[in-house]
Amino acid sequence: MDLTDFDSARFLRDYWQKKPLLIRNPWAEWRNPLEPDELAGLACEADVEARLILRRRDGWMLERGPLEESRFAKLGKAPWTLLVQAVDHHVPDVAALIDPFRFVPNWRIDDVMVSYAVDGGGVGPHFDQYDVFLVQGLGKRRWRIGGPCDADTPLLPHDDLRLLADFEAVEEWVLEPGDILYVPPGVAHDGIAVGDDCMTYSIGFRAPSRSELIAHFCDDVLARLAEDDRYGDPDLAPQDNPGEISSAALARLQGMISDALLDRDAFARWFGGYTTTRKYPDVDWAPDEPVEGEEMRRELAKGEGLVRNPASRFSFVRQGDGTTLLFVDGESFPCAGAMAALAEQLCGSGRIVIDQDLLGSDEAMALLVTLFNEGSLAFDPDD
């Protein structure tokens, strides 16, 4: 599915991380990619993250999946919402919803959460720490937009939900199938289903916090430091007061830290692996039948295409020496020459057709076999 009359450069300049934007049905042809019963089926599976939110007279209640199939028949008349995370990992048509938004770099994309709500259902007034495009799939939803929020914004006491204690709408829209609402980080919003069979697709983006980056990168730095990498002062001279920590010592000590933390190449290698780690790394996507190099070569020679697993994350970093580091699902693969071009193709194309000149490359076949057998790549089912 494609967007029509949508200026991505203007959007990034005027709206991205600045202010909300309502986009009335911009699709060339909108088609809801998932039926409500299919969403409910996913919520019953053990390896799928699902939540059921009910609004009752005494407050909000949250149940975590997997849900029993019989649970949906016992919900009663109280408004409820079903939320299923990372549906794009399981449904190719839902994964295709991300493609029109790839003017934002791949490493920023998180997943597609899908919600189903009955009349009056919602998750309450809240704010998120990330950007989100809310695509209305079925039915109608009334969105109310509030003001900016931060860590000091008062919340209602609740063990599972971060609901705003005070919410005042400044804008309000009713979205119909195909309409899109963009909400930047930190902006209060509240969506309520208008009628039954309300489905919304939330395309969310990742925004690592400073504390998260520092903590995880420091863990990586520490793991690489040798035990004998210690402070030294071979030019030590007598000082007037032995109790003083001299400015020279402080500079040398701080330099030991900054030299390790300000290594750009080391940070790039760490971040590439960190940001491409799968959202659910314990889920096994390996194929039932692994392939070997010659089989891969034969299939590609027939014109067979490859596609990325929607649950996999691909990115690359260009290095100063002309090589490219390919990152796939947390693993790194150094690539040079024609292999660097292949790495960029794997990251940038939805369907990958391998250049016939690469069929004779054992290095290229080895990389593709590794990614195939890990479940990161698959042969295009449409071929």
From TrEMBL:
* Organism this protein belongs to: Sphingobium nicotianae
Higher taxonomy: Bacteria, Pseudomonadati, Pseudomonadota, Alphaproteobacteria, Sphingomonadales
Q: Name the coenzymes or cofactors required.
A: Fe(2+)
- Tell me which InterPro entries the record gives: JmjC_dom, NO66-like, ROXA-like_wH
Question: Superkingdom, according to UniProt?
Answer: Bacteria
Query: Any keyword Oxidoreductase?
Result: yes
Instruction: Spell out the protein name for this chain.
Output: Cupin domain-containing protein
Residues in domain JmjC?
Answer: 93-222
What UniProt keywords are attached to this protein's entry? Dioxygenase, Iron, Metal-binding, Oxidoreductase
GO terms assigned for molecular function: 2-oxoglutarate-dependent dioxygenase activity; metal ion binding
